[in-house]
Amino acid sequence: MSWLLTLGVIAVLIWLLKTFWPNIRQRYFAAFMNYYTTQPNPDMDKLKKDLFSPLGSLVSHDPELRKNNAIKILEIGVGTGVNFAYYPEKSRLVVVDPNPHFASYYNENRAKFPNIQSEEIIVSTAEEMDMVPDNSVDVVVSTLVFCSVGNTEKILQQILRVLTPGGKFIFFEHIREFDTERHGMRRKIQGFLTATGIWPFLFDGCYLTRDMLETIQKAGFSKVQAQRFYNPIDHIVFQLVTPSLKGVAEK
Ligand SMILES: C[S@@+](CC[C@H](N)C(=O)[O-])C[C@H]1O[C@@H](n2cnc3c(N)ncnc32)[C@H](O)[C@@H]1O
Predict the structure, then answer these.
(1) 41 lines ligand 1 (CB under 6 A)
(2) So what's the architecture of 3-250 in CATH?
(3) Could you tell me if the CB of 94 is within 6 A of ligand 1?
(4) Least confident of 8-12, 40-44, 83-87, 171-175
(5) What pLDDT does 209 receive?
(6) How confident is the model at residue 1, as a pLDDT?
(7) Which UniProt keywords apply (predicted)?
(8) Residue 80 CA: distances (Å) to CA of 29, 36, 181
(9) Tell me: the pLDDT tens digits for 44-80?
(10) Where are the domains of the chain?
């Protein structure tokens, strides 16, 4: 009889975990990202200033926005909204993220940038962002998003669809270790933590073993300028996410 009770308790525990874990994980991850991204990081600041510098000279496809010297930006996987500081004044910002628990952090952040006309988060994956009209944005931004998406190719096709001709896709992503001679051990650890599901479990579906450069190059952009590099991060655990990719692709 007692084994029946034990089985029943285990079954209920598994059911509870399966039902509530995705929500708990999303909540915890949003809080973690908020903590992590609010720590001072001069290297990241420098990197972003450089990455977003093409926005300063961009002219909108939309005559109304052009009159006001403004551009329209779509940021996918916006999270807490860490990139506001790098957007030109008067930008119009549309944002997409599937995790609803980022909304409060994002809203807090956007209130600090009244000169950017930002909208509430559209709760959706970038794969499913069909609500964003074709040829409607001047720039798409993605920072640290592709590590955890379901379908990279589909997102790139969505980005090409929503970008106006000549529009730019600006990206910065952590990727799989690319220097196997000097950092083979890091690559092995990335593989182990991803294959065992430990890292995706802890970091809301993040994979350490992706490198989206080739996929971006093959997606159909007219120009791709990209660079693999090491993002300087002090924390020992986050040495695993220092191999990175940044660049700009043009529709
Ligand atoms: C590591 S966080 C990065 C957040 C923010 N971009 C930054 O640079 O701090 C990854 C973000 O991607 C979002 N995300 C995950 N899968 C996604 C998908 N399929 N489409 C769009 N965003 C996604 C997550 O909810 C999360 O906000």
Answers:
(1) no
(2) 3-Layer(aba) Sandwich (3.40)
(3) no
(4) 8-12
(5) 97
(6) 65
(7) Methyltransferase, Transferase
(8) 11, 10, 36
(9) 999 999 999 999 999 999 999 999 999 999 999 999 9
(10) 3-250
